[in-house]
Design goal:
The chain is α/β, with parallel strands linked by helices. The protein is built from 5 helices and 13 strands. The protein has a 7-stranded mixed β-sheet with strand order 1-3-13-12-11-7-8. Strands 2-4-5 form a 3-stranded mixed β-sheet. The relative contact order is 0.18.
Length: about 240
């Protein structure tokens, strides 16, 4: 998890070129949490359905590519939020296809979860892929930017290690990106991807018992270890979740 090839060799450095962008992002998140000495666990989709310890988490991070969700996963997600849980989607193409988990198998039962069913849960919907670009700051006053001297319109997430074969451009808003829709009730846009056509909307919803942050981009984690702003955003999110 995720599936990798024999060419996907880890040599102990976030700068190592991996064959799989999914493996790279899993490694980069773990490396970041280890370096910052943040205690964490790793859970599978099946754990999301069945493991009660998940609901005791200070914060749940959905990493890189969280596309395939079952009805049970959605139910548990709602249960966690309603109990005051905090969620970080460091991911793109979130909650898009509905699946059924049977033992070790995953079956797609719907190619497109209705936007009206999930927009108020994750904030954004899939709008594009194939290119990458930095973000620009939309609300410099928000606490995710605490400790950073950023200005509205400032670019960040410029350098990115998660280059996908066939992707044009470089940046933390890339490959598969999501944006706000008319159903994204209560979500505020904090930053916007500068992609030529469709950029990722970095959003947050705080009028819940807990809160939901969504980077809305698959390449977001590729900047985690090489971009000061994205690194600090992640630290601020985790610190805020743990402190409450």
């Amino acid at each position: 998890r995720p599936m990798v090839s024999n060419q996907d060799i880890i040599e102990g450095d976030p700068g190592t070129v991996f064959g799989s962008h999914l493996l790279r992002s899993e490694w980069e998140m773990a490396a970041f949490l280890d370096e910052k000495k943040i205690d964490y666990g790793v859970f599978s989709d099946k754990d999301m359905e069945d493991d009660p310890i998940l609901l005791d988490s200070d914060v749940i991070i959905f990493n890189t590519h969280s596309e395939y969700w079952s009805n049970k996963m959605i139910h548990r997600y709602k249960q966690y939020l309603n109990a005051g849980g905090k969620v970080i989607f460091a991911s793109g193409n979130n909650v898009f296809r509905k699946v059924r988990l049977d033992g070790k198998a995953m079956s797609v039962i719907s190619q497109n979860i209705k936007e009206t069913h999930i927009a108020d849960l994750v904030g954004t919907k899939l709008v594009g892929d194939g290119n990458a670009a930095p973000y620009k700051v939309m609300d410099k006053t928000h606490w995710i930017f605490d400790g950073l001297s950023v200005k509205n319109g400032q670019k960040f997430g410029i350098k990115n290690l998660n280059q996908v074969d066939g992707m044009s451009g470089q940046g933390a808003s890339g490959w598969e990106v999501d944006s706000l829709s008319k159903y994204s009730d209560g979500f505020k846009c904090l930053a916007k991807g500068l992609n030529p056509k469709n950029g990722a909307d970095m959003v947050i919803k705080e009028n819940l018992p807990g809160w939901v942050f969504n980077a809305s981009s698959i390449t977001f984690v590729g900047s985690l270890n090489v971009d000061e702003v994205i690194s600090k955003i992640m630290i601020n999110l985790i610190s805020q979740a743990i402190s409450q």
